[in-house]
Amino acid sequence: xxxxxxxxxxxxxxxxxxxxxxxxxxxxxxxxxxxxxxxxxxxxxxxxxxxxxxxxxxxxxxxxxxxxxxxxxxxxxxxxxxxxxxxxxxxxxxxxxxxxxxxxxxxxxxxxxxxxxxxxxxxxxxxxxxxxxxxxxxxxxxxxxxxxxxxxxxxxxxxxxxxxxxxxxxxxxxxxxxxxxxxxxxxxxxxxxxxxxxxxxxxxxxxx
Length: 208
Hints:
By secondary structure, the protein is α/β, with parallel strands linked by helices. The chain has a single domain, classed as 3-Layer(aba) Sandwich (Rossmann fold), CATH 3.40.50. It is built from 8 helices and 8 strands; from the N terminus they run αβαβαβαβαβααββαβ. The chain has helices spanning 14-22, 38-47, 58-66, 76-79, 103-113, 127-136, 160-169, 194-197; strands at residues 28-32, 50-55, 71-73, 88-94, 114-122, 172-180, 186-189, 200-207. The protein starts with 13 loop residues before the first helix and ends with a strand. Mean pLDDT is 88; it is low at 1-9.
């Protein structure tokens, strides 16, 4: 079943464009937490990938399937074990890691089932978040994480420094790191001050 091009948005979200740029044409891709399937549809139509998706919400799955995308309902914490090793060339986990119960285990599964993993998340070490917590004494909301503390699906918020340290402990190699601004546009290569000044981060990983 081929993807319906009508699912393609007029403007793909900025951070998803950056992810798409990292993925080679005609590759095998798994998008975990694929939402409405916008990235999968773009990759299928524009890069001729063999795309698959996993989405925890039934409404997201229904939206994807209605547009001809191959997406199943699943949970990254429990269902990645069902995939054999080296099934895909790329696996994408965009703005989803913080909602998993076992982030380290999920990352290790990503590089087991794919040659390369693309992971993005909101950096909770950013100076505005630090300032809001210091000045107001309340958990801050961000453009990438607009929920209040009591209704957020996120349970493992992290900083860029936390993520890099975890990759080392999990035996993962960082091939590339790009920092993003609040709108998801590329800012600069991850550097020494990234944990303080960058609002989001995007990493390309492989197994060690």
